[in-house]
Design a protein that fits this description.
The chain has 347 residues and is α/β, with parallel strands linked by helices. The chain is 29% helix and 18% strand. The chain has a 5-stranded mixed beta sheet, with no helix packed on it. A 4-stranded parallel beta sheet has the order 5-4-3-6, with helices on both faces. The structure holds flavin mononucleotide.
Length: 347
């Protein structure tokens, strides 16, 4: 039977859990950051040295983490594209625009456990030699921006952020930037334009791949809120352990936003690939079935840009055999998407 698996939301909904730093520290908060900052340099057999940063990046690659912003691109691979030889500063931007209709997972993390995101960001920045990072948050989320600013203030007061973090010599500043609220600002190059104070017209790729020519034409990493939270857990448990969660090609957990005509709308964290769409709609620990008198018309599985799955439609799964696409049954749809929605009120 499919069940929730709480990794990122482990504490967020516990009674008495609050978004302040003291509560986060009581629950083991910032232990992964301490671990990351003290990873010893490894001497290799050829006499070369592997820095803490390189080891963390390797572990993120090993974890198989895919970005949670929609495209599902490998996080480790994205980090490996960063131009580290340009001599320019490297920036990191947390994409907290969450503009996809029906998606509200990032907002839950920000409101209930902001320090988890900040810890994930500091580790990611350290691993990528970033000294200045931004959280680009949707304009319609003023409460989230306020909570994040407060959390950053608390982190600075504990020397987890700012100059000479925890006496390691590493400096980092993170600023919150509020967007004006436009769907396209969620797209990474549109977001970068907006952060530079311009209209958010997406940039042409190539040449404007953020890893090479991003913010202020400098190498830039753009990652989603949930992706960055995962980095904290990868450092905490190790990439190999993290990779045991989910499926071999798509590891970890996913937070599913479930809205529409179900008895229990909300957000649910599941191991990737371990619950079907039907289970998410009907199982008592998830959607709990349709509201009385409602009939399922369609499901929108991944926001407005995804295909609308009509009720009763048959789905065929494709599989690669010897490099060729082969269609196969069963038609059981494995759930790997970020949000699911339901038809308008229908008799
Ligand atoms: C039209 C459009 C809207 C997008 N909106 C968001 C968004 O609201 N939040 C987000 O994290 N990514 C969004 N993305 C994906 C980002 O461009 C980018 O791939 C993502 O932030 C990278 O983070 P990740 O690798 O951690 O997934 C959007 C992409 C497109 C094309």
């Amino acid at each position: 039977m499919a069940q929730e698996y709480k990794l990122i939301l482990k504490h967020a909904d516990e009674p008495g859990y609050t978004p302040d730093i003291e509560c986060y520290l009581r629950h083991g908060g910032y232990d992964s950051l301490r671990k990351a900052l003290t990873v010893p340099v490894v001497e290799l057999s050829d006499g070369k040295k592997k820095s803490a940063q390189e080891q963390i990046r390797e572990d993120v690659m090993k974890s198989g983490l895919r970005g949670r912003g929609g495209a599902g691109f490998s996080c480790g691979l994205k980090w490996s594209f960063v131009d580290r030889r340009s001599g320019k500063p490297i920036y990191l931007i947390c994409n907290a625009d969450e503009s996809e209709p029906g998606t509200f997972k990032d907002r839950q993390i920000i409101h209930k456990d902001p320090h988890q995101l900040i810890e994930g960001m500091i580790i990611s920045c350290f691993a990528n030699d970033v000294k200045l990072a931004y959280i680009y948050i949707r304009g319609e989320m003023p409460k989230g921006a306020k909570i994040l600013n407060q959390a950053l203030k608390e982190a600075r007061a504990k020397n987890l952020l700012g100059k000479n973090i925890l006496g390691t010599g590493y400096d980092l500043e993170i600023h919150v930037h509020r967007g004006a609220g436009a769907y396209i600002c969620g797209e990474e190059t549109g977001l970068i334009e907006s952060l530079e104070g311009k209209r958010p017209y997406p940039r042409i790729k190539p040449p404007y791949f953020p890893a090479v020519l991003g913010l202020y034409m400098c190498p830039t990493i753009v990652n989603n809120v949930e992706t960055l939270c995962n980095v904290k857990h990868i450092v905490g448990m190790g990439g190999a352990e993290f990779a045991k969660l989910g499926t071999p090609n798509n590891t970890g957990t996913r937070i599913v936003s479930l809205s529409g005509q179900v008895k229990r709308p909300g957000y649910y964290e599941i191991e990737v690939g371990k619950a079907t769409l039907g289970q998410l709609i009907h199982d008592p620990e998830f959607g709990g079935g349709l509201l009385d008198g409602r009939k399922l018309k369609a499901v929108i599985p991944g926001g407005s840009s995804s295909k609308v799955l009509k009720a009763g439609e048959k789905f065929k799964l494709k599989r690669k055999v010897d490099g060729k696409d082969v269609e196969e049954r069963p038609i059981f749809l494995i759930f790997l998407m970020i949000s699911i929605r339901f038809s308008k009120r229908a008799p």
